[in-house]
Amino acid sequence: MPVPRELFDEIYARHGHRCPMSTLGGRIGYAAAAQVAAAERLAVYYANTCALDGIRVTTGIGNPRVIEQGRHTLVLVDRADGRGVQVSLRPAALDIAWEYRWVSEALDRDRAELDAAGLTARQAELGQVLDGVLQRLWTIPDEELLEIVPVTLDLEGNAQ
Ligand SMILES: [Zn+2]
């Protein structure tokens, strides 16, 4: 289901910048929150990235537990019975995020050799790439971006 645009504005305000991963965190959190009752949620995210701010805003959980395994996966369960969903990014989502990161990293590499006009042009190009990437990450259907499966979390925080 589409995420309201105001939620992304809220994510960027909290996060301090617009970026693909905070946007994807919003997509992950919004999809998971739709499946688990609001009152008693427990969240575990398996990577320490910008996605956490998107997850905070869309799940209402200020301090999701972070277990660094380099996996773009959120487990959101009902605290009472441990039942909920596991939401992971599909490779297609990361491919889109990388389109921005390539251009951003290339600019970082080249920055010292650019004159003022060149730098301005490259920054404008980067901004356009970001706009295009975010537009797609706001609107591409859940099925293309996310894998959503039912899950039960045990007391140690291991998903089963
Ligand atoms: Zn970020």
Structure summary:
With 160 residues, this protein is α+β, with helices and mostly antiparallel strands. Helix content is 51%, strand content 17%. The chain has a single domain (5-152), classed as 60s Ribosomal Protein L30, Chain: A (2-Layer Sandwich), CATH 3.30.1330.130.
Strand residue content: 15-25%
Helical percent range?
Answer: 40-55%
For the largest beta-sheet, the strand count, sense and barrel status come to: 5 strands, mixed
> What Rg do the Cα atoms give?
17 Å
Shape: elongated
Distinct compounds present? zinc ion
Number of helices: 6
> Which residues sit in consecutive blocks of at least 5 with pLDDT less than 50?
none
Arrangement of strands in the largest sheet? 2-1-3-4-5
Number of domains: 1
Spell out the blueprint of helices and strands:
Elements: H1 5-15, H2 20-33, E1 41-45, H3 51-59, E2 65-66, E3 73-78, E4 83-89, H4 91-110, H5 116-139, H6 142-145, E5 146-152
Helix pairs in contact: 1-3, 2-3, 2-5, 4-5
The structure holds zinc ion (ZN).
Can you put this structure into words, describing what you see?
The longest helix is centred in the C-terminal third of the chain and has 24 residues, at 116-139. Strands 2-1-3-4-5 form a 5-stranded mixed beta sheet. The chain has one domain (5-152): 60s Ribosomal Protein L30, Chain: A (2-Layer Sandwich), CATH 3.30.1330. The mean pLDDT is 94. It contains 6 helices and 5 strands; from the N terminus they run H-H-E-H-E-E-E-H-H-H-E. The two termini are 26 Å apart. The chain has helices at 5-15, 20-33, 51-59, 91-110, 116-139, 142-145; strands at 41-45, 65-66, 73-78, 83-89, 146-152. With 160 residues, it is α+β, with helices and mostly antiparallel strands. The structure holds zinc ion. Zinc ion is lined by residues 15, 17, 19, 21-22, 50. Zinc ion (ZN) binds next to helix 2.
